[in-house]
Automatic annotation (TrEMBL):
Alphabetical keyword list: Hydrolase, Multifunctional enzyme, Purine biosynthesis, Transferase
Record EC number: 2.1.2.3, 3.5.4.10
Pathway membership: Purine metabolism; IMP biosynthesis via de novo pathway; 5-formamido-1-(5-phospho-D-ribosyl)imidazole-4-carboxamide from 5-amino-1-(5-phospho-D-ribosyl)imidazole-4-carboxamide (10-formyl THF route): step 1/1; Purine metabolism; IMP biosynthesis via de novo pathway; IMP from 5-formamido-1-(5-phospho-D-ribosyl)imidazole-4-carboxamide: step 1/1
Keyword Transferase in annotation: yes
Family per similarity comment: Belongs to the PurH family.
Organism, as annotated: Metabacillus lacus
Molecular functions per Gene Ontology: IMP cyclohydrolase activity; phosphoribosylaminoimidazolecarboxamide formyltransferase activity
CDD domains: IMPCH
PROSITE patterns for this protein: MGS (PS51855)
Gene from which the chain derives: purH
Listed InterPro entries: AICAR_Tfase_dup_dom_sf, Cytidine_deaminase-like, MGS-like_dom, MGS-like_dom_sf, PurH-like
Record carries keyword Ion transport: no
One GO biological process term: 'de novo' IMP biosynthetic process
Record comment regarding domains: The IMP cyclohydrolase activity resides in the N-terminal region.
Protein name (record): Bifunctional purine biosynthesis protein PurH
Length: 512
């Protein structure tokens, strides 16, 4: 059946006027709410006010305008149902064939810095979603458009056939239910936070498509990248790609890990990541020094890695980065000279991202088979905790520097994790081992003779004194670990025996 009557009520008026002009030129009668009607009339279009259809004024600052049987009857009547149609006739209700509605800007409103709860609540659209849902439920008879991007395709079909195909109506209906669900998910989250409920009986999360991916972790796995609808400054999703091929699934995860680690540092820092673990971290007075140390930390593993830096990349640093094959470089910026040098390589991806040094405070979602685990991010830093030194010897100033670097890094290494650091760089990283002393042995072996006088960080306590002993034999002089094992005494005694200083943080940084 041809489209004869359209109800148009939109907050986002992008591209609306030419769309409605063409509808009217094709003989479609337009019904509109206050603001939409004014705009269309200003453009010389003839529009019927919703109040004229309902016989009821728009009241309470627009809280009630389209919530009326004359509207919802016209949307929900099944045209092939004679009962429905005679009830419409009995109540002098006319059918509505096309609904063009977009909603009060709730997301945009809560994204503003100074938003009040009253303002947010006033931007919860009630009438709009009701119309969208009614039309989407009755999609066989009603075309529903919530996204201005769909105006051209809808117009084309009406132009060609007077109506929209059932296939497209179904597609638009599904899109509307996704849209209203996403809209409600944001509102639910906002109200849940307002009510300070930490573990509600159900949750609905919403994400927006960032990009299609060629494949997932492996080429036979399909994958897509979605982002949170709200801005999350300093997060990988905010990065701008300046050069190179599209990011892959593994690139995104590795780059995310690199950004998280480099965000731990306020001083110039560079981080190289392989398979979500850091392989080299360096800090220094300038970004060239920091990167040189991150490189030197493990010149073998960095090859094909992802490097994140927290300062603009200058030409000198770019020259060094350019010497080896890297998948991605992420930095707050690149000088023009650095950019033209690095972009000579076709395959390297260059990303700019303001690293804000604060880390993320988002909830962390991890899927398990048949479920979802939600936790806060591990945003605890050394500045936020009280440490104690149970050994006879206190760390020297130099040792403190190395301990802090090792501790900042170990938090981001897959458990069981051990990190050795010395002179502003990591010198050994043992990741993802099934026993702690095994992780220590890997880190120690990597450090080799550089281990003399180094600091060791452990993501969790030592169940036995064997790690302290292995560290002592490798030349480690300072250790930082959570403490809390029933055998802490043995580790402390072992440390004292070797003249090692040990710091207890009382905080565990498991990363499974
Ligand atoms: N209350 C209602 O009956 C109602 N009907 C439509 N709206 C919304 O009002 C907006 C358009 O208003 P206007 O045409 O006055 O600019 C649209 O975003 C639409 O979703 C309503 N507003 C909110 O609930």
């Amino acid at each position: 059946m041809a489209i004869q009557r359209a109800l148009i009520s939109v907050s986002d008026k992008t591209n609306l006027v030419p769309f409605v002009k063409e509808l009217v030129s094709m003989g479609v009668q337009v019904i509109s709410t206050g603001g939409t009607k004014s705009l269309l009339e200003k453009e010389g279009l003839q529009v019927l006010g919703v109040s004229e259809v309902t016989g009821f004024p728009e009241i309470m600052d627009g809280r009630v305008k389209t919530l009326h049987p004359s509207i919802h009857g016209g949307l929900l009547a099944v045209r092939s149902n004679t009962g429905h149609m005679s009830q419409l006739a009995e109540n002098s209700i006319e059918t509505i064939d096309l609904v063009v509605v977009n909603l009060y800007p709730f997301k945009e409103t809560i994204s503003k810095n100074s938003v009040t709860d009253e303002e947010a609540i006033e931007n919860i659209d009630i009438g709009g979603p009701s119309m969208l849902r009614a039309a989407a439920k009755n999609y066989r008879d009603v075309t529903v458009v919530a996204d201005p991007e769909d105006y051209p395709a809808v117009l084309q079909q009406i132009r060609e056939n007077g109506d929209v195909s059932e296939e497209m109506k179904l597609m638009l209906s599904a899109k509307v239910f996704r849209h209203t669900a996403a809209y409600d998910a944001l509102i639910a989250e906002y109200m849940t936070n307002l009510a300070k409920e930490e573990s509600p009986e159900s949750i609905t999360v919403t994400y927006e498509k960032q990009q299609s991916l060629r494949y997932g972790e492996n080429p036979h796995q399909k994958a897509t990248f979605y982002r949170t609808p709200l801005k999350t400054s300093g997060s990988l999703v905010e990065a701008k790609q300046l050069h190179g091929k599209e990011l892959s699934y593994n690139n995104i995860r590795d780059a995310d890990a690199a950004v998280a680690i480099v965000s731990e540092f306020n001083e110039p820092a560079a981080v190289a990541v392989k398979h979500m673990n850091p392989c080299g971290v360096g800090t220094g007075e300038d970004i060239f020094t920091a990167y040189s140390l991150a490189y030197e930390a493990d010149p073998t593993s960095i090859f094909g890695g992802i490097v994140a830096l927290n300062r603009e990349v200058d030409y000198k640093t770019a020259e060094k980065l350019h010497e080896i094959f890297l998948e991605i470089i992420i930095a707050p910026g690149f000088t023009d000279e650095a950019m033209s040098l690095l972009s000579q390589k076709k395959n390297i991806r260059l990303l700019s991202l303001e690293i804000n040094g604060k880390g993320s405070s988002q909830k962390q979602l991890t899927s398990v088979q048949g479920g979802l685990l939600i936790q806060e991010e591990d945003s605890l830093t050394l500045e936020g905790i009280d440490v104690m030194v149970p050994t006879k010897r206190e760390p020297s100033e130099e040792e403190w520097k190395d301990l802090k670097l090792a501790w900042r890094v170990v938090k981001h290494v897959k458990s069981n994790a051990i990190v050795l650091a010395k002179n502003e760089m990591t010198i050994g990283i043992g990741a993802g081992q099934m026993n702690r002393v095994g992780a220590a042995k890997i880190a120690i072996e990597q450090a080799a003779e550089k281990g003399q006088g180094s600091a060791l960080a452990s993501d969790a306590f030592f169940p036995m004194s064997d790690t302290v002993e292995a560290a002592a034999k490798a030349g480690v002089t300072a250790i930082i670990q959570p403490g809390g094992s029933i055998r802490d005494d043995e580790s402390i005694r072992m440390a004292d025996e070797y003249g090692i200083t040990m710091v207890f943080t009382g905080v565990r940084h498991f990363k499974h």
